[in-house]
Amino acid sequence: MLRIDEQNSHEDNLLKEQLVAGNELAFNRVYHKTNRSIYNAVMAYVKNEHIAIELVQQVYIKLWNNRQKLKEVRSLGDYLFVIAKNLTLDHFKKITVETKFLTELMLRGNEPINTTAEKIEETEYEKLLNHAIGQLPPQQKEAWLLINEQELSYAEIAAKMNISKLTVKRHLELSRKRVREYLKSHLQALISLPAVLFLFFK
Questions:
Q1: Percent of the chain scored above 70 by pLDDT?
Q2: What's the CATH architecture for 4-93?
Q3: Does residue 43 have a pLDDT over 80?
Q4: Contact 26/18 with Cβ under 8 angstroms?
Q5: CB-based contacts of 115, cutoff 8 Å, min separation 6
Q6: Is 172 or 187 the better-scoring residue by pLDDT?
Q7: Rounded CA separation 191/29 (Å)
Q8: I want to staple 23 with a disulfide (CB 3.0 to 4.6 A). Which of 5, 18, 119, 202 is the partner?
Q9: What whole-number distance in Å separates Cα of residue 88 and Cα of residue 35?
Q10: What contacts 34, CB < 8 A, 6 or more positions away?
Q11: Interhelix angle for 154-161 vs 138-148, to 10°?
C-alpha cells in the first residue's frame, strides 16, 4: 500500500502528464487543489484582494500556456509557488517604475516650460492623456474625472455615482491601469522625452 507522500507524488506526476497532454479536467483539478494556498501566499505580500486575485489568475494562465515545461518539473506545487513569486516580484517592479514615471511627470509639471520643444511635448502629452481618458468606460471615466479634476473623496464619489466605496476603488484601479497602458504604448512617439522613456522601457 502506498504511503501518503508516495500517493501525493504519484498523483502529482499523473496530473503533470495529463496537463502536458492538454487535459482540462486535470487543470481544473490542480486549480481547485492549489489555488487557496497560492492566493494566501500572494496576499501575504500584496495585501490587496483584487491584485492578489489578478496575480493568481495569471499564475494559472501561465501554468496552462507553459504546460509543456512540466516535463522537467519535479514538484507541481513548488512550480506554482515559483510562478507566483516571480509574478509578485514583477508586480512590485512595475509599481516602482510607474511611481518613478509619475514622479518625473510631477517634477516636469512644476518646472516652467521655456522652450518651444518643451511646449510641444507638454501639448502632445496632454493630448495623449485626454485621449486615454476619453476611451475609458463611462463609470471609470466619471470616477477618474471626479477624483482628478474635482478632487472628491471616495465617499463623495460613491454618493455622487450611487455606488459603494469599494466599487469606486475598483473603477479607479481599472481606469489608472488603462490610462497607464495607453500612455506607455503611445509615449514612444514623443521621442524628445528621453527621461520618461527611460523610466518606462529600461
A1: 72
A2: Orthogonal Bundle (1.10)
A3: yes
A4: yes
A5: none
A6: 172
A7: 49
A8: 18
A9: 15
A10: 76, 77, 80
A11: 140
pLDDT at 51 (0 to 100): 85
**Domain 112-201: which topology?**
Arc Repressor Mutant, subunit A (1.10.10)
Contact 200, 184 (CB under 8 A): yes
Rounded Cα distance, 65 and 43, in Å:
23
Residue 138: count of CB within 10 angstroms of its CB: 8
Residue 171 per-residue DSSP state = H
Please give the grid coordinates belonging to residue 176.
489608472
Q: State the Cα angle at 182 between 177 and 185, rounded to 5°.
A: 125
Please name the residue that has the C-alpha cell 529600461: 202
Q: What is the pLDDT of residues 68-122, one digit of tens each?
A: 989 888 889 899 999 999 999 888 877 766 555 555 555 555 554 444 444 445 5
- Contact 124/187 with Cβ under 8 angstroms? no
- Parse the chain into domains and list their residue ranges: 4-93, 112-201
Q: Which amino acid is at 6?
A: E
Compute the mean pLDDT over every residue in the chain, rounded to the nearest whole number: 77
